[in-house]
């Protein structure tokens, strides 16, 4: 894949193409998770390091890059056993920079999830951003730019990634040899990662599990709640997935209850379950549940305070 075949983010791709001959020393690719920031960072890096500046796939630099052995390309990210990217990691970058390029005329460093840089790491990086060597290029991918120091941001070109159109999502699915499905394109909210995740059997199994549990709900099913609780561990790191699936299901049930039409339903692959739930409950009851879960969906730091959120969910499901 190269800049010409990358799908979406047209304005950003255009900017990067123009920058190939004379790139800036630091870029921040910012936006929500799943919009292709890491992929585009790699593609741009390959272009920069390519002997022909075209990601030709033929030159020695491209071969080294494709083999993940290019000496002038480094990816820096948080280690799994660490809470943040340490200042030591940044010092390693600075040490590496002092040696200059080995093969290409540039050295490219991609820092993934830059918001995970510690404050001291950001301050150490700042010194290099203020006076970078002429061959140094930094690309910082970031899901939450507000956690970066303003001084780091001000010394970088910020490129903000946007959600994709339905047609772009369909093209990405075709590119991955997947059949575009209308309900998935609606549910993914223009996010390629969410889209591709829907084709994962484990994700679909979780979705089926959630819908089956909702369908069993009778307004005061404490037994159901205890059963839900016993298997809730699988969602402790993904409350957003849980909440969004419940919200979309309840929204569909409410729309069907009010209109008796399936045209506005998003989960078109689950029509039978939605209709069954809708027929089982009143409009007022479904609406109250929908409102409750919409509040829970906005609960701050849900992944951190999972037990508190879990208690709230059980309370709502039991009619509390």
From TrEMBL:
<protein>
    <submittedName>
        <fullName>DNA polymerase III subunit delta</fullName>
    </submittedName>
</protein>
<dbReference type="Pfam" id="PF13177">
    <property type="entry name" value="DNA_pol3_delta2"/>
</dbReference>
<dbReference type="InterPro" id="IPR050238">
    <property type="entry name" value="DNA_Rep/Repair_Clamp_Loader"/>
</dbReference>
<dbReference type="InterPro" id="IPR027417">
    <property type="entry name" value="P-loop_NTPase"/>
</dbReference>
